[in-house]
Write a structure and sequence with these properties.
With 282 residues, the protein is mainly α. The chain has eleven helices and two strands; from the N terminus they run ααααββααααααα. 74% of the residues lie in helices and 3% in strands.
């Protein structure tokens, strides 16, 4: 039973990590709290629905298209609207909150308010260490792991990745070194929104879609980055794992509401001893 709960927790953790990594990159590089990040997650799910269910493309092809299109949407939003609010916390929050309403209204007007379902890319269940896990959950775990590893490798071994980390640690110093902050902000926005779209597309094969599904994603993403430490990529991964495993292990024992409350209490207790989060910069 505990193996089953553990694997369910890893499924939730995969989604939380993708959302939180996107938020972390945007906060660290662009310098804003992207309040519409949950709506990028929602739009990503609907794009997968459009291409896979309405246009008949294979699910994974639709997922890749969704990541690219929503990533490009992020670039447009950053260049046209968010760049001018760098360093202006209140302005950025107002602007990105407005995008929540815009994107929700647009999706509701185009797709309608009714729930949508994405067909599972793989049917059936598989036994893992005696636990029965659906293929949808396995896909979420595997794809999330691949995307996380790809991001970590790009940060560690590519010049843009190293430059983004330099910006997140010391913006002024990075600028003095000749790093193009505007260019890397666009790249960070593309990656962050693309990861959110990936999370939305993955979860869409398990749960129904609706235009207001982004609120939960934003809440969980913010909780994870606060727990892991603002601006810390490893912290976002560890925080997502903790929150996902709390959900997986507690939900079968108590109601989902109580499990969420317990999770938040644990986060608060951790922050009492580590106010900057588990791996936040001192």
């Amino acid at each position: 039973m505990y193996v089953q709960d553990l694997l369910n927790g890893l499924t939730s953790a995969g989604i939380y990590i993708l959302i939180a990594l996107g938020l972390t990159l945007i906060l660290g590089i662009v310098g804003i709290v992207q309040m519409a990040h949950g709506e990028m997650y929602m739009v990503g799910a609907y794009v997968v629905y459009l291409f896979s269910m309405s246009m008949g493309l294979p699910y994974f092809a639709a997922l890749v298209i969704s990541i690219i299109l929503v990533g490009c949407l992020g670039i447009v939003v950053e260049r046209l609207f968010l760049r001018r609010f760098r360093g202006d916390v209140e302005g950025a929050i107002i602007c990105t909150t407005a995008f929540i309403l815009v994107l929700q209204t647009a999706v509701k007007g185009i797709a309608g308010p009714s729930y949508k379902d994405i067909a599972s890319p793989v049917e059936g269940v598989v036994e893992v260490f005696g636990a029965r896990l659906s293929w949808e959950e396995i896909v979420i775990i595997l794809v999330s792991a691949v995307l996380v590893v790809a991001l970590l490798v790009s940060i560690k071994w590519t010049k843009p990745g190293q430059a983004m980390m330099a910006i997140s640690e010391d913006l002024v110093g990075a600028t003095l070194q000749g790093i193009n902050v505007d260019r890397l902000s666009s790249i960070a926005m593309f990656i962050g929104c693309g990861l959110a779209a990936a999370a939305g597309g993955l979860i869409g094969a398990t749960f129904s879609l609706e235009p207001f599904m982004g609120g939960f994603a934003l809440t969980q993403g913010i909780t994870v980055i606060i727990l892991g430490g603002l601006g810390s990529v490893p912290g976002a991964i560890i925080g997502g794992l903790i929150l996902g495993l709390i959900d997986g292990l507690l939900t079968p024992q108590v109601s989902p509401t109580i499990a969420s409350i317990v999770g938040l209490v644990i986060v608060i207790l951790i922050l009492l001893f580590r106010p900057k989060g588990l791996l936040g910069y001192e």
